[in-house]
Every structure is written in C-alpha cells, then in structure tokens.
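During the practical work, I selected for study one protein's amino acid sequence and its backbone structure tokens, as given directly below:
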Amino acid sequence: MNPPPKPSPAIETIARGVCLVEDHLLLCRSRKAGNLYLPGGHVEFGEKAATALVREMREELGMKVRVGEFLGCVEHVFRQAGQRHAEINLVFSMHSPRLAPRTTPVSIEDWIAFEWLPIDRLRQSKLQPAVLRRCLPSWLRPDGVKRLASTRDGWRRA
C-alpha cells in the first residue's frame, strides 16, 4: 500500500496597507529577522481582505484605519528559516488621521516595529516583496493601472 500523499504547503493570503503621508510610506519591520514590509497580516477564512487589514492594524497599532482602493496583488514565493513559503498579498491604500511621519507609531506587538520611509527612497529600500519597490509608484498614481506582480521566476508583470 502506498503512503498517503504529503499535503501541499498552504498559500497564505495577506492584506497589506499602503499609508502614504507627506511623501512618506509607513512600513513594518520584524525586530528579529529585520524584514521590511507593508503593514497588514493574514486574512482569516471567510474574512474580507479589507476587513482583515482593519483588524490587523487595530491589533498591531491599536488604532482604526480606513481602507481605500485596491492597488494591486503580489504573488510572493520565498524561503524563511529553510522552509518554502507562498503568499498572495492584496494591497490597498490605507489612511488614519493619527498617522503622520512626524511621529513613529509604536507597535502593540513586541515582535514588530513601524518606521516611515521617504517615498523617493523606495527603490533603494529593502522592502519585501522586492517587486513592490517597482510597482508601488505606478499603483499610487491616480491614473495608475492596478496589476498583478510576482516574485516567481520568469513571471513579473507590473
């Protein structure tokens, strides 16, 4: 008798927020690994992505945010601690009157920190997935076409 097949690794669905204030972009950094990424988190089963983003910001910042338009989607495959991971990042504009580059928001969760990045330094930043460094400026333009981008080898549309 053959052993049962191994389960396929899960593809995580992540809601991410782009908070752009005074030409500065709010980013999140893992205190342990140093990874830099857009704020947000996992979408729970049956939850709308925009609702997940509001919930995650309340959990991470202790404040309510307003989720705006859908900006784009990034398929991201990477290795972390030797394990393969795959995620779909649904990226939305996000705003809160309490967020401004004059003050760095303090995270409620001790494993992450927030920081502001001048948007003109985005391409040189360590933002992950890296394809966002190229996509975000066009996605943020009023006439910007929303696209699908990917870190998968051989397939990068943005």
